[in-house]
Amino acid sequence: MTNLANIKRGVSLYSYQEEYYTGKLSLEQCIAAVAKSGATGIELLPEQMLKGFPKVTDEFVDQWFGWMDQYKVEPIAYDAFLDNKLFPNRLLTLEENVDMMVRDLKLANKLGFKVLRTLVSTPLEVVKASLPYAEEYGVKIALEVHAPFTFGTPWFEERMEYIIKSGTKWFGIMPDLGIFVKRMAPVIEQRYIRDGATPEIIKFVSDNYANGLDKQETFEAVTRMKNANKKDVEYAELAKHFVYTDPNILKDYIPYIMHVHGKFYEVTENYQEPSIPYKDIINVLTEAGYQGYIDSEYEGNRHIQDYMEVDSVEQVRRHQVLLSNLLNQ
Fold first, then answer.
1. Which pTM was predicted?
2. 177-220 tens-digit pLDDT
3. Which of 4-8, 170-174, 190-194, 316-320 is least confident?
4. Alpha-carbon distance 184 to 236, whole Å?
5. Which of 97, 141, 264, 321 is 20 to 30 A from residue 122's alpha carbon, by CA?
6. What is the CA radius of gyration of the chain?
7. Taking a C-beta distance cutoff of 8 angstroms, is the pair 91, 121 a contact?
8. What are phi and psi for residue 251, nearest 5 degrees?
9. What is the mean pLDDT of the chain?
10. What's the pLDDT score for residue 83?
């Protein structure tokens, strides 16, 4: 069978948020770290890392493309946030929402991005009204499929039905690999235990999750335990917001996938992600002929800040090795 996949590796600069926030890495240094990891794609959160957002100067645009050339990387995905609750007394109108979307499409175009990530909270009518502008600026709108939402939920099916029926080439999906969490991440378990949770109860919740037992029933069981403390209950509540979806579902949506968020919580020294079945996911994407990028998106930093220094650069490097090993096997 011919392998029609063309999967490339990128990095979401969101992965380096810890070092960027503390001033250890500048925007240019984040881009340099991506290049050093072996990745070639850049995903940017402009609100997080662009000074003066949403305005950028011509000098910055020139500098941006200079960095792309210098480090031999390319702009891939622009992560937009639709601030629908900008005012305390009302939601934004449809027109105001579309204006904000157009603002981001223009900026994405100016910085060379071909895909704009929009969140699950973006109303479908806003996307529909924005599609002519997406085409005008040559930037596709990709809906992030993010836990606790996943394939098959009413929210997803409504949007997928529109994409298929309309035949649009400017609206698609961006699966976040956090919808494939097969077991609770060890770094999260350990954080709760350090914060005072009961190890046996944490294990009970995690085991039930890994075995596919009802998460609400697990939560209720913990609340009835006489020895359960506040942190135990919090952990059981947290587990309700994680989901495991069979990776084979990706085969049905390959034509509509514009980008993939390679969510990970930790990559060990032997290049394994303990909670997400990367081998299964990469095999499905490869066999189904996915054409596009998978971008590292590190989210383990917040779970280790209490006891050790975060090294996002090393975690992304390991994740890129994991991806490279699986893609080249």
1. 0.95
2. 999 999 999 999 999 999 999 999 999 999 999 999 999 999 99
3. 4-8
4. 11
5. 264
6. 20
7. no
8. -60, -35
9. 96
10. 87
Locate tokens 């027109």: which residue? 95
The sign of the CA dihedral 273, 276, 279, 282 is negative
Nearest to 207 by CA among 183, 228, 232: 183
* CB 139, CB 113: distance < 8 Å: yes
Q: Which two tokens stand for residue 75?
A: 């702009």
Local structure of 77: helix, strand or coil: strand
Q: How confident is the model at residue 329 (pLDDT cuts 50, 70, 90)?
A: confident
Question: In this structure, are residues 250 and 261 in contact, taking their beta carbons and an 8 Å threshold?
Answer: no
Q: Which amino acid is at 109?
A: N
Angle between helices 230-239 and 186-194 (to 10 degrees): 160
**Whether the Cβ atoms of residue 19 and residue 25 lie closer than 8 Å to each other:** yes
Residue type, 174: M
Contact predicate 278/240, CB 8 Å: no
> Own/partner pairs for 119-122, CB < 8 Å, 24+ apart?
119/80, 119/81, 119/82, 119/144, 119/146, 120/144, 120/145, 120/146, 120/149, 120/155, 121/82, 121/84, 122/82
Let me know the angle formed at the C-alpha of 95 by 94 and 97, rounded to the nearest 5 degrees.
Answer: 65
Closest C-alpha to 298, from 33, 28, 51, 46: 33
pLDDT at residue 274 above 90?
yes
Tokens describing residue 8:
């490339």
